[in-house]
Design a protein that fits this description.
It is a single chain. α1 (69-96) crosses α2. β1 (2-8) and β2 (16-18) form a beta hairpin. The protein is elongated, with a radius of gyration of 27 Å. It is an alpha+beta fold. The chain has helices at 69-96, 127-137, 148-155, 166-169, 179-184, 191-194, 209-218, 284-287, and strands spanning 2-8, 16-18, 30-35, 38-51, 63-66, 101-107, 113-119, 140-145, 225-228, 231-239, 244-251, 254-261. The relative contact order is 0.08.
Length: 291
């Protein structure tokens, strides 16, 4: 068994394991650790505990020390430098006429480097911009191009549901999302209905996909013929939460609509006698939502 603590560098960031040595660190306390980016400040999310050696993918780096009030002041000072740095960088970008959108910036804990994050439609030659920024800040400059999903994660905002975006509040990693997930859940393939602030498919489509994928296989297709206790009819709608099917049954000159439990119906299961169902063509507007 290996002794570890779990730390995060950002509120909604990934969890990383470090070796606490013989020290005890309480939850929500600050620690100083060494990373590939250098010395960094992190917050303890998982107090000291033991885990099996096989769960660790690489040798653990040790925690250098507990954070002090001086370290907290350093973090605060670096945060205060962020707004002026963003303003200066935006002015330099405008002066160079570069086709890029500045999203955010951060100073490393020791203040030896500042990282600027930006989005752009294609590759941007920012070599001259780096020289301009270096002459102003007199420290190492790094420009990092990110995607629109990363931009939303950094900036945050309210999603169509009215809650804070999952990616910036409770989701450390992006989940793989596909159009098929929306189809499985019977959602309208209207881009405005299934896209988030980033303009890509909403991450929450993946939350209950396992259930809907299984339920979808059991349900008859809308428009297909089914046998019911009241006779033959056509499927009008399916409710995968209640596992019910609304069927239209012809009766003389009129028709009746009735809900049936799935086990009351007789129909060909999806894929029977046909092999794999062919994929439906995807609208051009929907394609734009895919990464």
């Amino acid at each position: 068994m290996a002794k570890i603590i779990g730390v995060k560098f950002k509120d909604c960031g990934k969890l990383y394991y470090f070796d606490p040595g013989d020290k005890l660190f309480e939850k929500d306390t600050g620690v100083i650790v060494e990373t590939a980016r250098g010395v960094e400040y992190a917050t303890v999310c998982v107090p000291v505990r033991e885990v099996p050696e096989e769960e660790l993918v690489a040798p653990l780096k040790p925690v250098l020390r507990a954070a002090t009030e001086k370290d907290a002041e350093t973090i605060k000072r670096n945060e205060e430098r962020r707004a002026p740095a963003m303003k200066t960088a935006a002015e330099k970008i405008a002066a160079r006429g570069l086709d890029m959108k500045l999203v955010d910036c951060e100073f490393t804990f020791d203040g030896s480097k500042v990282i600027f994050y930006f989005t752009a439609d294609g590759r941007v030659d920012f070599r001259e911009l780096v020289k301009d920024l270096s002459s102003v800040f007199r420290i190492r400059i790094e420009l990092r191009q990110i995607g629109v999903r990363d931009e939303t994660k950094m900036l945050g905002g309210l999603g169509p549901c009215g809650r804070e975006c999952c990616c910036s509040s409770c989701m450390p990693d992006f989940k793989k999302v596909s159009i098929k997930m929306a189809k499985n859940q019977g959602l309208s393939l209207n881009p405005s209905k299934i896209s988030g602030l980033c303009g890509r498919l909403m991450c929450c489509l993946a939350y209950e996909n396992d259930y809907y994928a299984e339920a979808y296989k059991k349900m008859p297709k809308v428009g297909s013929e089914v046998g019911t206790p009241d006779g033959e009819g056509n499927v009008v709608n399916v409710n995968m939460l209640k596992m019910e099917v609304k069927v239209r049954i012809e009766k003389g000159d009129g028709a009746a609509y009735k809900d049936f439990k799935l086990d009351e119906l007789k129909f060909k299961r999806r894929g029977q006698d046909k092999g794999r169902e062919p994929d439906e063509p995807i609208d051009e507007e929907i394609k734009k939502l895919l990464d």
